[in-house]
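not sure who needs this but someone in the group chat was asking about Diguanylate cyclase from Deinococcus knuensis so here u go. i didnt clean anything up, its just raw.
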Amino acid sequence: MTAGQAGDEQRLATLARYAVLDTLPEHTFDRITQIATRLFGVPIALISLVDKDRQWFKACIGLDIRQTDRSLSFCAHTIMGEDVMVVPDATRDPRFADNGLVTGAPHIRFYAGAPLVTPDGFKLGSLCIIDTRPHADFSAEDHASLTDLAGVVVSELELRFTKRQLETEGQARAQMMSFLRESQAVNEALLGVNNLAQLDLPPQDIAAFATELIAQVAGVDWAALIALDSSGGRTVASWTYSENGQSFAQHLPERLRPGEGVAWTVASNGQPHYVNQYADTPNAAPGVVQAGAQAIAWLPLGTYGDQTYVVSYAMLRAGASWTARQRELFGASANAIRQAMSMRELTRTAELAALTDPLTGLGNRRAFMERGALTAGLLAAVDLDDLKRVNDEGGHASGDDLLRLFAQALTAAPQGGQAYRIGGDEFALLLPPDQSPDAFADWIGAALTQVRAGGFRNASASHGVARWPEEAADMGSCLQLADSRLYRHKRERTH
């Protein structure tokens, strides 16, 4: 086996891991190809995944087929390179002049494809656009826009892969629960925790609700969810189930200094800690002993964002000690809580990545279409006028710096304002209906002042404004109207 064959075997293994080949169409991927056809003014756009002997289309606009032989695939050439592959006229390209897709239907003339590169560097296929007539040029901005859209495809594939992994983990959790049927109480409690995991709740809320449920089933006197961060530790939720529990809670410190107490040790080593006869343990806190502590348990729940969580249970009855059933319940429930919280965090992170422009950190076109809609308001379509000049004179790194500076400056928005990057040099700004259209000029002007101070002294921008629902029924038509006014503004400035 040659090095190239070995590399393609690894690539094919990565493609198989995504489990996307031969799946049904999905609206998100179809929408990306629809955006591509509109953005570049071509009749055909494909999300092509290159398999061993074929290329298969996850999304396909403008063609009635779902796959072709790999030998005919333009995209098989695209994944051999690092950048967008452009074929201005396939009839004049010796690689493709005799290709059956050129000499016959669909009579490809122009092709441009951006590789779909996974986070670990494998090229699964490409996002490509096709026309039946040659194109004389394909600008640097076009390269950047097609690359950005290919990045969105990869983000969607990652989100799809993450959700599939989480479903597998959920199945594993269900199998774990089946082994605990000896205790009906344990089974019912874990089923409740599992049901919580299906709710769309923040991780901390899942942990709090589950802790209360387990505490009731376990018959403890006191339970708490503790959050630890760089400033110290605090109890974010607690429950008492007896008079002793109320007295115990009153003797506990409101906050823990960083590194102070068993909770920090448990969080650090990731292992649960059970104590019977607490008064006899080294470094027992006098106040906790006085409050009647007999048996205390601490279990780690993991770190989410900047918070590390630990759950603690206590029994205060004389001679109380942890039973095997309670330990089983605590351990299994902590594992279920960890997985539930992790599921929420992974899903949130993946969804955020799919809605974020990786260069500027602003919401991307998908975020604008899905989250930017208001019941009424004003929309400005904005173009940075001299991005092409900056790219030509200083290179794409300089152009990226300009985009980042402008985007960062736009985050200083008026009350209720929202900013999105929706294309190469295109931005969309939203304001609530009580704002004046003149607020856009002030907003953009202030951003340009910062950009000029950052080294781009000739930076300028054009914009067009539209209002909905008075002038447009929906966000898509409103953006088209604002775009048309933007280009009219550009023409007026150049004449």
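also Confidence is low (pLDDT under 50) at residues 178-182. if thats useful
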